[in-house]
Write the structure tokens for this entry.
Amino acid sequence: MKAVRFSEYGGLDVLKIIDVPTPEVGLGQVLVQVKAAGINPGEAKIRSGLLHARFPATFPSGEGSDLAGTVAAMGRGVVGFAAGQSVIGYTDNRASHAEYVAVEADNLTPKPAEVPWDVAGGLFVAGATAFAAVRAVSLAAGETVVVAGATGGVGSIAVQLARLAGATVVGIASHRHLGWLQGRGGIGVEYGDGVADRIRQAARHVDAFIDTVGSGYVRVALDLGIEPTRIDTIVDFAAAATLGVQAKGSAAGASAAVLADLAGLVAAGQLEVPIAARFPLSEVSQAYGMLDRGGVLGKIVLIP
């Protein structure tokens, strides 16, 4: 089968598509033929070596967590799934950017027919992170939350989950994406110098803040008078360590149950996962290049 591998830390040029043996399923595992797999900023940081201290790579390394596909085979002890069944899931083994992946059955949930393959393949990391962040800031109906990076993969989902919780959402984004926010019930604020003043103009009082960007937004949130326990950053771990804010991300929302709930919202038309682009597996470098350039609305997905 074809799979993405890299044998050293580096830029886009270290990513290769090579032939590797199709995985064999072990106890409690399911072999999934991948139909779509999302890409994420954390994977790019791991590949570049920026996260070596926290998430070291063993070379040659695969990559990818998000996946959606069909059940090709099942190992001993697997119940609740059938050959040919459509599933959504995730792997903790950096392996979903491939034609097949062996996945723990506990990390899979059935894919509703109403959820497109590309959306299903890009749902887990961004969805679990957004779910965890919204839960971390304890939103109540009638409160106001600011989401920095509100039209990225995580932010676009967090905006909608916060709205479903009954909150008013002020979303920070580029000018060209403010219309998308407004169309989903958010108040759009352009990023850049003076953003705190624009937030104050948009909302008299802010109760919570979700930071998906870093770049000093935790300090902006504190300057707005928000309690540290109601600020969550998914990227600025130094600020979380020193300023008392939360740093709940995908690990705090990682479960098949959460994934099933998110897929259910998509199927019911209550949650949209914008797909910015779809790339064949052979163009994985181009996909990450687009991610690196920034300004992406929603998710970028690989189609093996």
The chain has a mean pLDDT of 97. The chain has two domains: 2-123+273-303, 126-251. The longest strand covers residues 29-38.
